[in-house]
Amino acid sequence: MAKVTNVLLVGVGGQGTILATKVLAGVLQDEGYDVKMSEVHGMSQRGGSVVSFVRYGDRVYSPLVEQGTADLILAFEKLEALRWLPYLKAEGTMVVNDLEILPAPVLLGKASYPYNALEILAGKVRELVTVKAAQLAEEKAGNARTQNIVLLGALAKRMGIAPGTWERVIRASVPP
Predict the structure, then answer these.
(1) What's the domain range around 23?
(2) What is the DSSP pairing of strand 34-40 with strand 49-57?
(3) Which one of 9, 32, 102, 154 has the fewest beta carbons within 10 angstroms of its own beta carbon?
(4) Are the C-beta atoms of residues 44 and 50 closer than 8 Å to each other?
């Protein structure tokens, strides 16, 4: 059976999760992989959870990733990292943006935010990579809205795909 790699991109509406997913799928297609992707928007336009599944390999039959099978999770926000943690394989890698976006129930005082999310993740994830994407986006691109591309860069380091492919697909997919 051919190896299939499972990737989840998880975030909050408005963070560019869907664009990042499309860039990732484009990079993988350029590299010659069979790629399947699926997006779940939910209440994303109101700041709700967004998750995208990307599966790639020699031959992929379904875009959906089951719990406990994700090789990589790219989390655009810490609470989303915790929410989707059950999908990560025991030996999987999680790349997490060190960012807190308080959901409506927390803002309304009806729930609490897990401000110790990174500590919880560190105790449960074999390879945890934390990225201060907002700070890097400001420093490197002069625009915090480029956090999604910064996070893709952190993911790219773990995927073994040539930087030139990433640059070509990003230039074709993302406005200057």
Answers:
(1) 4-173
(2) antiparallel
(3) 32
(4) yes
Query: Domain containing 144 — which CATH number?
Result: 3.40.920.10
Q: Answer with the residue of higher pLDDT: 60 or 44.
A: 60
What is the C-alpha to C-alpha distance for residues 86 and 94, in angstroms, rounded to an integer?
12
84-89 long-range Cβ contacts below 8 angstroms, 24+ apart: 84/8, 84/10, 84/51, 85/121, 85/124, 85/125, 87/8, 88/125
How many domains are there within the chain?
Answer: 1
In the block, residue with structure tokens 């989707």: 84
DSSP state letter for 128: E
Query: How many CA atoms lie within 13 Å of 23's alpha carbon, on the beta-carbon side?
Result: 25
Give 60's pLDDT tier (boundaries 50, 70, 90): very high
Residue by residue, DSSP assigns 33-81 as -EEEEEEE-TTGGGT-EEEEEEEEES--------TT-EEEEEESSHHHH
Q: Residue 111 — φ and ψ, nearest 5°?
A: -150, 165
Model confidence pTM above 0.85: yes
3-class secondary structure, 98: coil
